[in-house]
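Hi support team,

I've been running sequence recovery on a batch of backbones for a student project. Most finish fine, but this one hangs at about 90% for roughly twenty minutes before it completes. I'm not sure whether the input is malformed or the queue is just slow. I've pasted the structure tokens below so you can try to reproduce it. Let me know if you need the job ID as well.

Thanks,
M.K.
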């Protein structure tokens, strides 16, 4: 029976596998040849640590094996699990070993030395075999699982919103177009414009930037929902925080206001952090030691401390009085830049902070206008190192004001007719937010670059794998 290395390693002192004969399968990390035997480190991705296999010369096929026992080769080994010399680690004494797939050590790109993350991006088909990318994959999986658990436990329905859309949720024009028209020979109308009646959807269509608008439809029918899917933004930002394709978690709550929204996001983030602390100890110790010293403490501290909540207007006052020499001097009405967010969260508050009530002119059309006529019930959650992790708001539920806002932002009312009708037929106060999943992983692991926390990053000039 094949068992995973994690099962063998996680048994503690009274290990269920000790003295038992099992089969393991995986890839060789390293081989050390001694006089009468070889040590083979086998990793199957189930845990950070590998299993040491002692391969004795007495194995009948040892002579043939030895030249193929190379880093990167896939093998199956069967043998008894025993205590290692130091009694701390379990190891296997192989009774049989089979090479499943050979690996040419001369050309295999993953050498024992440390590779840069930039280099590893060029071999995205092999990089999950490294310690760091393997650990990221397990943390990513744990965060996805914890996300579903959090919302499911609270009665939220998981709704699948479309990937192809004809409306721009954020109104920011950062859309990738989807078409079946021949772009080398576009059909034209009499007026010389592109004739979209010949296109697949008979109108311009795009990859979605957010599932929110459709999420609101379901929240207006089945109460609390969440989406968790890929979103796409054609913003040309070559930064460590932006991807062209990223995953977003978007809960939408019926009969809820901005305070419910803040309470929910704080509970959500603390829940998933605690989940990782409880269930991903080995990988988190690795990140804490090699990638981002202190990251464990940070998470631990956050889980036990209330988030700060501050209005945009107050935040601007703090920034104006900070005496910092910002590259973009701050003024009321401006969007907060990354440097401002980081000052607030890292220097001033020194804990996650939820900034609310932003000027209406810098926020999306769907956000609920406050009584002051100047601000909207928006909220951004800022965390150390990452800056903005979550964006959300209470939604505008008044038809006339929403129509006015669409017009003011130059968005065609016709495209949003169904969204407007939600305000006509049984409108409700509702609120929601979007968590950038990769920013969440980046925060939890302390990884520097967002491109290294998604298996196959898409950014300007890159869609190879
Ligand atoms: O603040 P954003 O644009 O909000 C929305 O899309 C809303 N529709 C969400 C909602 O209320 N349902 O994006 C939400 C989050 C950001 O806070 C950020 O973490 C992440 O999505 N994000 C990105 N992550 C990676 N690459 C990008 N280009 C991102 N743009 C936004």
């Amino acid at each position: 029976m094949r068992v995973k290395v994690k099962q063998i390693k996680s048994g503690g002192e009274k290990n269920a596998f000790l003295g038992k004969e099992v089969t393991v399968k995986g890839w060789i990390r390293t081989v050390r040849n001694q006089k009468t035997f070889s040590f083979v480190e086998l990793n199957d991705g189930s845990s950070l640590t590998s299993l040491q296999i002692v391969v004795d010369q007495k194995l009948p096929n040892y002579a043939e094996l030895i030249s193929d026992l190379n880093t990167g080769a896939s093998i199956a080994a069967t043998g008894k699990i025993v205590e290692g010399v130091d009694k701390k680690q379990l190891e296997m004494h192989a009774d049989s070993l089979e090479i499943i797939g050979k690996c040419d050590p001369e050309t295999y790109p993953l050498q024992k030395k440390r590779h840069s993350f930039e280099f590893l991006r060029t071999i995205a088909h092999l990089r999950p075999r490294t310690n760091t990318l393997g650990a990221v994959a397990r943390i990513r999986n744990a965060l996805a699982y914890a996300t579903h658990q959090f919302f499911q436990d609270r009665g939220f329905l998981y709704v699948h919103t479309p990937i192809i859309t004809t409306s721009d949720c954020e109104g920011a024009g950062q859309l990738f177009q989807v078409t079946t028209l021949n772009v080398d020979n576009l059909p034209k109308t009499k007026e010389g414009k592109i004739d979209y009646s010949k296109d697949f959807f008979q109108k311009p269509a795009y990859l979605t930037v957010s599932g929110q608008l459709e999420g609101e439809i379901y929240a207006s029918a089945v109460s609390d929902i969440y989406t968790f899917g890929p979103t796409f933004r054609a913003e040309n930002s070559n930064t460590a925080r932006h991807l062209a394709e990223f995953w977003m978690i978007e809960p939408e709550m019926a009969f809820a206001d901005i305070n419910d929204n803040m309470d929910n996001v704080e509970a959500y983030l603390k829940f998933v952090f605690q989940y990782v602390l409880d269930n991903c100890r080995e990988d988190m110790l690795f990140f804490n030691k090699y990638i981002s010293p202190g990251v464990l403490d940070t998470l631990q501290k956050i889980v036990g401390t209330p988030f700060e909540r501050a209005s945009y207007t107050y935040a601007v006052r703090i920034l104006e009085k900070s005496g910092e020499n910002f590259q973009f001097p701050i003024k009321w009405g401006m969007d907060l830049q990354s440097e401002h967010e980081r000052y607030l969260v890292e220097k001033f508050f020194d804990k996650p902070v939820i900034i609310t009530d932003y000027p209406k002119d810098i926020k999306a059309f769907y956000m609920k206008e406050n009584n002051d006529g100047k601000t909207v019930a928006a909220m951004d959650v800022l965390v150390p190192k990452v800056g903005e992790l979550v964006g959300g708001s209470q939604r505008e539920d008044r038809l006339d004001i929403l129509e006015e806002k669409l017009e003011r932002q130059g968005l065609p009312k016709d495209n949003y007719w169904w969204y407007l009708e939600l305000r006509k037929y049984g409108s409700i106060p509702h609120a929601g937010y979007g968590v950038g999943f990769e920013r969440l992983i980046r925060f939890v692991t302390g990884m520097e670059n967002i491109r290294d926390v998604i298996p196959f990053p898409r950014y300007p000039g890159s869609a190879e794998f």
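--
Follow-up from support: It reproduced on our side and the slowdown came from queue contention, not your input. The chain has two domains: 5-108, 129-174+209-452. No action needed from you.
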